[in-house]
Amino acid sequence: MDNRAVGIFDSGLGGLTALKALQELLPEENILYFGDTGRLPYGEKSREQLRRMAVQDLDLIASFDVKAIIVACGTLSSNAADILERYPIPSFGVLKAGVAGMRKVPGDGPLGVIATAASIRSGAFEKALRADCPGREILPVPCPDFVPLIESGHGSGDPAIRDAVARYCAPLREADAVLLGCTHYGIIEGALSDYLGQSTALVSAAYCGAAQVAQYLIVNGMTGGRGEERFLVSGDPGAFGRAASTLLGRPLAQGAERVPVMAY
Ligand code: DGL
Q1: What sign does the CA torsion over 123, 109, 112, 212 have?
Q2: Do 110 and 191 reside in the same domain of the chain?
Q3: 204 C-beta closer than 6 A to ligand 1
Q4: Which pLDDT tens digit goes with each residue over 151-206?
Q5: What share of the chain in percent tops pLDDT 70?
Q6: What is the pLDDT of residue 12?
Q7: Residue 157 included in any domain
Q8: Residues tagged active-site
Q9: Which residues of the chain fall short of a pLDDT of 50?
Q10: Ligand 1: does its nearest atom lie under 6 Å from the Cβ of 43?
């Protein structure tokens, strides 16, 4: 039993899809969430910047004495996997778990992955999918407009989201499954599944990553807590609090607190 919090971080709202999943699986866990809203979007940053930011974000979260960290960001998971893996506190990205989720997709048709420009450019999702799902065509598609639209309040029903989904996802209509390689994309899952249709399964890297951490805590006897949450942001705490409570369907008990924006 370990009552310390689980740290979860992302550039903004996307990591809430992992938070939600962890709370479904282990509702008693205490959670410390960091949304780096002062520096988003991560998907437009260079690999060097992202690697520096990964260290800064991990160090910030680690300063709160957490027992494990979910790097709920496909962009950092794909550009800084080695940094997460050797961090002294157990830290889990969403790439490996998401790709493992794709391994279970039946059939031999194509598999897609949608993610930020920096994630797709890294080649890490494509490489891991090719290794884990041999014999299948892999279709990697960057979707740079999704995160700015989602962070500015657009949801599945908005025409701007529907247009962007149609623009990016046309090559994926024949895929057996599409990996949501960016944690933000679960927020527009409705628009994605409406466009891609029932024959294309959606696999959430955020959910798979949270499930992997839940399993790690259970196996290592490290579960425990009182279901408390604390939210930190480097941008506007009021805006984040409002958007987060809309997405979670409940108010944040303590709101969100501001931390300084770090240079990168
Ligand atoms: N949600 C993040 C990801 O999974 C970051 C998106 C961004 O800030 O561009 O990639």
Answers
A1: negative
A2: yes
A3: no
A4: 999 999 999 999 999 999 999 999 999 999 999 999 999 999 999 999 999 999 99
A5: 100
A6: 98
A7: yes
A8: 73, 182
A9: none
A10: yes
My answer on whether 196 and 113 are in the same domain is yes
The finding on whether 151 has its CB within 6 A of some atom of ligand 1 is no
Structural domains counted in the chain: 2
Same domain membership, residue 128 and residue 60: no
Q: Are residue 103 and residue 192 in the same domain, yes or no?
A: yes
**Does ligand 1 have an atom closer than 6 angstroms to the CB of 9?**
no
The pLDDT score that the predictor gives to residue 50 is 98
Instruction: State which of 147, 208, 247 you would mutate to test the pocket of ligand 1, scoring each by most atoms of that ligand within 8 A of its C-beta.
Output: 147
CATH number at residue 39: 3.40.50.1860
* Mean pLDDT taken over the chain: 98
Is 263 within a domain?
no
Domain, as residue range, for 49: 6-93+207-258
pTM of the model: 0.98
pLDDT at 35: 98
Tokens at residue 227, please? 């279901």
Which amino acid type is present at position 136? R
Atom of ligand 1 lying closest to residue 151 CA: 8
**Residues 89 and 59 sit within 8 Å (Cβ to Cβ):** no
Rounded to 10°, the helix 205-219/16-25 angle is: 40
pLDDT for the residue 39? 98
The answer to whether the CB of 42 is under 6 A from ligand 1 is yes
Of 75, 143, 152, 204, best ligand 1 pocket probe by most atoms within 8 Å of the beta carbon: 75
Same domain, 115 and 198: yes
